[in-house]
Amino acid sequence: MEDFAAVPDSVSRALGEDFATLPDLASRALGGGVVHANDEFFAAADHLVLPTAPVYAPRTFDHKGQVYDGWETRRRREPGADVAIIRLGAPGVIRGVDVDTAFFTGNYPPHAAIDGLAVEGYPEPAELLAASWTPLVPKSPLKGDSRNLFAVTDERRFTHVRLTIFPDGGVARLRVHGTAVPDPRLLPEVFDVAALVNGARITECSNMFYGHPENMLMPGLAQHMGDGWETSRRRDDANDWVTVRLAAPAEITLVDLDTTHFKGNAPGWATVRGSEDGVDWFDILPRTALRPDTPHHFPVRPERVATHARLDIFPDGGMARLRLHGRPAANTLEEQFRRHTPGS
């Protein structure tokens, strides 16, 4: 068994030092959606939460003008501001937002503000408009055709955000980066503790040349090879790996390793190990042969609780999805939820 501590720092990529590396809680890929926009004359606000990067084709016109891959409101002729309200796909603690004005040059808003709201259930737009919102980013200047990054320091859990642009214009994407904090009342007794929507996150990986390891923790099935984690080809005797901080301490009972779409580039073998401290690692799934383009399901019984998991692939290749099903330790999710939800 190789010593995990022996992995050279030169091949270890620590993630999460910058809020922009955290998951986009508003992404459509996690279930986010635009529930209200006061104006979307030129381009629909639904574009704001698309997980794909915005694109632009010059001199592409429809009956309302140049086509933009973003939200664009008409030109105001009186004082005011335009508003879009987004339901987060994964409610949680927001660490920062990215107001991306890509390709909006002469028609971007000069200023924007972001507010947050925490509500239960599925409120109507009128209820959201009448609610008391918490300021997260004050009215701040924007640059055109740029990513405008704003850190957020509020430690509370939010379910919705409100983007206000002053006075009008176009925004390509709104990315709301943070850590998911699920409501434990909405989770089954056994669930995927490696899922982003449940609060898990990638902490380190050896290589992400072709695809970010965060893709493995996304909901649903991978749509294509680019919707997974893939490393470059190794020309040495080492192997690639990734570590995950689990949503809650848990004893893993089922490991899913899905190589769907990876046909000539699936790993030959894999191991999964767990740790309670990120240092002392134990076997969850011993070295096991994998097949290309195949969802693999392995029942396991490590009989130890893990807070972190490490997937090693041998020697390299691609993985579409990683699922680690387990029963969380008692009260851990409830305590986390109460810590970030005042009055709960």
UniProtKB/TrEMBL annotation:
EC number: 3.5.3.4
EC class: hydrolase
Residue span(s) of domain Allantoicase: 31-180, 199-328
UniProt keyword annotation of Phosphoprotein present: no
InterPro entries given in the database record: Allantoicase, Allantoicase_dom, Galactose-bd-like_sf
SUPFAM superfamilies named in the record: Galactose-binding domain-like
Catalytic activity: allantoate + H2O = (S)-ureidoglycolate + urea
A GO molecular function held by the record: allantoicase activity
Pathway of action: Nitrogen metabolism; (S)-allantoin degradation; (S)-ureidoglycolate from allantoate (aminidohydrolase route): step 1/1
Keywords tagged on the record: Hydrolase, Purine metabolism
Keyword flag Hydrolase: yes
Cross-referenced HAMAP family: Allantoicase
Sequence similarity: Belongs to the allantoicase family.
Protein name: Probable allantoicase
Lineage, highest ranks first: Bacteria, Bacillati, Actinomycetota, Actinomycetes, Micromonosporales
Name of the gene this protein is made from: alc
